[in-house]
Design brief:
This protein has 457 residues and is mostly helical. Helices cover 61% and strands 5% of the residues. The structure holds arginine (ARG). One of its GO terms (cellular component) is cytosol.
């Protein structure tokens, strides 16, 4: 059994399966770069404040760099009995440089160390997530721009409602992602804060300079209360919440893709690369990637709940419960990055079945509101026109035809204000393009919307 860094007051040996339960090295080893950068900044500050010598500082820095080198060359062997990344690195450092390595932890605790590592790591990862969101937004803009004339059925209650431009529909997701991006950016304000120098709970008696380490590590802000610094995990909750909501957005888009690719709809076709076959049914082409994103959105929401429950009722300051903040977060980050990338690939390679969509919007009743509005324009109160059109729809359904197929005399029998021009009014192109209000689905409005969207990029 190796000697523990904290072994002084202990008399009995530790038990390996207890150590196993206590350890976090299996998952917190991904923090190695942040841990080493944090330590280098801390050592530089200790030297600048004459708490360690320049010689000790350079020994420490060289030692830490060579540990990182070993890690990158797969030469570093972690040990469970050293528990976590912080103590593994420190033990290696002492092994490499001797006594000077033991000075690195002066005026520092693992409590502010782990918080520093996590702030640095979450900041780096959230920036990557924001970049992936932007890539997807760009793909959506291109998709909308390249298919500006394509009309499709718009749904409410998953029942045909009114015809809309495909571009209008897909741009909805641009705006959801835009809000996601702004939430992640906003959270960065609270992520980008330095806890280093808070010590275990109360600060330190050494004359440290917390602002120097804050600046060297590139943090924008600093915790003003050492207890808050080591016990705050709000930024992790926020990040998990932001990921969960983005995943919910992606799950909605996934669901639409799944519906659009059914034989029943056949509105779009996914490229082979983003689908899979069935082991039994040779005809199948399944939208597995979209289904997986939909499914994974449950997992990220679960991690958010776990984190909230972890913190609920937790007294100040550091409690070992907090070690449980990592796996869910790491998994959520992997999940959102993977899902954004897959969604981007799916949309980039999507084929829109324009003829199917054209037929879909001519062979339905999604122009009924248009007929009602036509009657209103001729002076009939909307409630009466709604009733008239409802009856016409019913009689069409009974005959197995659509409004466009009704002969003029039957229109006139329902309301004598209806004229021959009704047939052009009922065409999906006219229905869509008569929508000119700001933010509506008319081609001109959508073109305007596209310009605004591009200005957000
Ligand atoms: N592995 C621990 C964690 O992830 C590091 C901090 C441990 N601090 C302590 N005093 N036990 O939270």
């Amino acid at each position: 059994m190796s000697k523990k860094a904290w072994g002084g007051r202990f008399q009995e040996d530790s038990i390996s399966w207890v150590e196993e339960f206590n350890a976090s090295i299996h998952f917190d080893k991904v923090l190695i770069e942040e841990d080493i950068n944090g330590s280098i900044a801390h050592a530089n500050m200790l030297a600048a404040q004459n708490i360690i010598t320049e010689e000790e500082n350079s020994l420490i820095k060289d030692g830490l760099m060579s540990i990182l080198d070993d890690y990158n060359n797969n030469k570093l062997v972690f040990s469970v009995s050293e528990e976590d990344i912080h103590m593994n690195v420190e033990a290696k450092l002492i092994e490499k440089i001797g006594a000077a390595g033991g000075k690195l932890h002066t005026a520092r605790s693992r409590n502010d160390q782990v918080a520093t590592d996590m702030h640095l790591y979450v900041k780096k990862e959230v920036k990557t997530v924001i970049e992936s969101i932007e890539l997807l937004q760009q793909t959506i803009i291109e998709l909308a721009e390249n298919h500006i004339g394509v009309i499709m059925p718009g749904y409410t209650h998953l029942q045909r409602a009114q015809p809309i431009l495909f571009s209008h529909h897909i741009l909805t997701y641009f705006w959801m992602l835009e809000r996601d991006k702004s939430r992640f950016n906003d959270a960065l304000k609270r992520i980008d804060v330095s806890p280093l120098g808070a010590g275990a709970i109360s600060g330190t008696t050494f004359n440290i300079d917390r602002f120097q380490t804050k600046d060297e590590l590139g943090f924008s802000g600093i915790y003003h209360n050492s207890m808050d610094a080591v016990s705050d995990r709000d930024y992790i909750v926020e990040t998990l919440a932001n990921i969960s909501l983005s995943m919910v957005h992606l799950s909605r888009l996934s669901e639409e893709l799944i519906f659009w690719t059914t034989d029943e709809a056949n509105f779009v076709t996914l490229s082979d690369a983003f689908t899979t076959g069935s082991s039994m049914m040779p005809q199948k082409k399944n939208p597995d990637m979209a289904e997986l994103i939909r499914g994974k959105s449950g997992r990220t929401a679960g991690h958010l709940m776990s984190m909230l429950m972890l913190l609920k009722g937790l007294p100040l300051t550091y409690n070992k419960d907090m070690q449980e903040d990592k796996e869910g977060l790491f998994d959520s980050l992997t999940t959102i990055k993977g899902s954004l990338k897959i969604m981007n690939g799916m949309l980039e390679t999507l084929t829109i079945n324009e003829e199917v969509l054209e037929e879909a919007v001519t062979e339905d009743f999604s122009n009924a509101t248009e007929l009602a509005d036509y009657l209103v324009a001729k002076g009939i109160p909307f409630r009466d026109s709604h009733e008239i059109v409802g009856k016409l729809v019913l009689s069409c359904i009974n005959k197995g035809i659509y409004l466009k197929d009704l002969p003029l005399p039957e229109f006139k029998a329902a309301s004598n204000v209806i004229e021959e021009d009704i047939y052009s009014i009922l065409s999906p192109q006219v229905v869509v393009n008569r929508r000119i209000s700001y933010g509506s689905t008319g081609t001109e409005s959508v073109k305007q919307q596209l310009e605004v969207a591009k200005n957000h990029m």
